[in-house]
Amino acid sequence: MSTPEIVIPASLLPADGRFGCGPSKVRPEAVAALASVGQSWLGTSHRQRPVLDAVGRLRAGLRDLFGLPEGYEVILGNGGSTVFWDVATFGLIERRSQHCVFGEFSSKFAAAAKEAPHLEDPEIVRSEPGTRPDPVANDAVDLYALTHNETSTGVMMPVARPRHADGRVVSGLVAVDATSGGGALPVDPADFDAYYFAPQKVFASDGGLWIALLSPAAVERVGAIKASGRWQPASLDLSIALDNSRKDQTYNTPALATIFLMNEQIGWLLGNGGLAWAADRSAGSARIVYSWAKASDYATPFVTDPAHRSNVVATIDLDERVDAQVVSKVLRANGIVDTDAYRKLGRNQLRIGLFPAIEPSDVEAFTRSVDYVVAALS
Q1: How far is CA 81 from the centre of its chain?
Q2: CB-based contacts of 148: which residues, under 8 Å, 6+ apart?
Q3: Nearest 10 degrees: CA dihedral of 318, 324, 327, 329?
Q4: In a 3-state reduction of DSSP, which class is residue 275?
Q5: CA distance linking residue 355 with residue 278, whole number of Å
Q6: CA separation (Å) from 112 to 83, 93, 122, 257?
Q7: Closest CA relative to residue 172, chosen from 108, 240, 99
Q8: Where would I find the H helices in the chain?
Q9: For residue 99, what are the β-bridge partners?
Q10: Alpha-carbon distance 101 to 131, whole Å?
Q11: Which residues lie below 8 Å from residue 16, measured CB to CB, with a gap of 6+?
Q12: pLDDT means per 10 residues in the chain (378 residues)?
């Protein structure tokens, strides 16, 4: 399909056209900072003091950003959140997990648990894309898998410990996939035992790491599973990752640029007011997008319940008379990139990243640019 030759006036364009949901926009200031230390940082040993100090700074920065209580650990390893699902099947789930499934990524952790030969089949609590389910208290479950933000559908869910009908809090661990929400959605550490994410979304870096915030109960579970003799590949062994992280290092070689850029973003978030500031900034950008869509005669928020709409990933359906793929191609030709719908969702839709690094003024410009393109296509 050829792309219509539509030129969006410069006065309508955002200053920065990156709206991807991962990899996301990396702030130019962070790239410049990396370039300034390129010869002294890139290509150096990850076992030497400069890199150990940088990993220590990353761990301390995340502890401050999330307000972690005493006893919580910040650990990291190579591979991203996809790898952490495998890590959790070996090192966090004792026998049986429950998974709230409401999109592509929440389903993948459930699939990993189901395929693990040493675990019982997981319990699945499912809802249709565009909605979210609630976890169900079950004494046979020792880990509840929640997803703070379902990147594929633009649905966010609250992080809270499930309760029985009589008000009792469940005894199982609460593990939260915060891949696209961590650092831009409010969360209380008291409500989770494992809160894990990756650098390439809110933290405006490259991929290749997983980062997990573990409660004392989760740390205890890691130790108990290790002591039980369960076989675990060394690269997926949480006890090894924990030991290395306490030494401010990773088990195997990390990408140094990723660590550097993530530290730059953590410092930027903390310098502007921390998690509360980041959450307000993304929420403001979300209000711009959803207000625009609701006022439009061709666009509609995909997520019908306003309370379920994500503040970091907006999904906007377009009327059938407007081809969203064509709109995205025209936007890309004008420097506005990565607005395509999630491929497996199969909807006539735009998907827009609203992470803190993205300027709210650019979000406003994005809506004006889409209006211009749709009018030109009519």
Answers
A1: 9
A2: 156, 157, 159, 176, 177, 178, 180, 181, 182, 185, 187, 195
A3: 160
A4: helix
A5: 8
A6: 10, 11, 10, 30
A7: 99
A8: 28-36, 38-41, 49-66, 81-91, 104-115, 216-227, 238-245, 256-272, 274-295, 324-333, 360-377
A9: 124, 145
A10: 10
A11: 25, 28, 358, 359, 362
A12: 90 98 95 94 89 97 98 96 96 98 95 97 97 96 98 96 95 97 98 98 96 98 98 96 97 95 98 98 98 98 97 98 97 97 93 98 98 96
What CATH class is the domain 29-270? alpha beta
Residue 1 is predicted with a pLDDT of: 63
Q: Where are the beta strands (DSSP E) in 63-208?
A: 73-78, 97-101, 123-126, 143-147, 149-150, 155-156, 173-177, 194-197
State the helix-helix crossing angle for 28-36 and 256-272, rounded to 10 degrees: 130
Residue at 285: amino acid letter: S
3-state class of 287 per DSSP?
helix
- Return d(Cα 94, Cα 19) in angstroms, integer: 39
* CA atoms of 138 and 205, how far apart (whole Å): 38
CATH architecture for segment(s) 274-377 = Alpha-Beta Complex (3.90)
SS3 173: strand
Per the DSSP assignment, residues forming a β-bridge with 73 are: 214
CA dihedral 305, 307, 308, 312 (to 10 degrees): 130
pLDDT of residue 343: 86
Query: Which backbone phi and psi does 196 adopt, to 5 degrees?
Result: -125, 150
Closest Cα to residue 353, out of 297, 267, 281? 281
286 by DSSP, 3-state: which?
helix
Query: Domain segments of the chain: what residues?
Result: 29-270, 274-377
Q: How many residues does the chain have?
A: 378
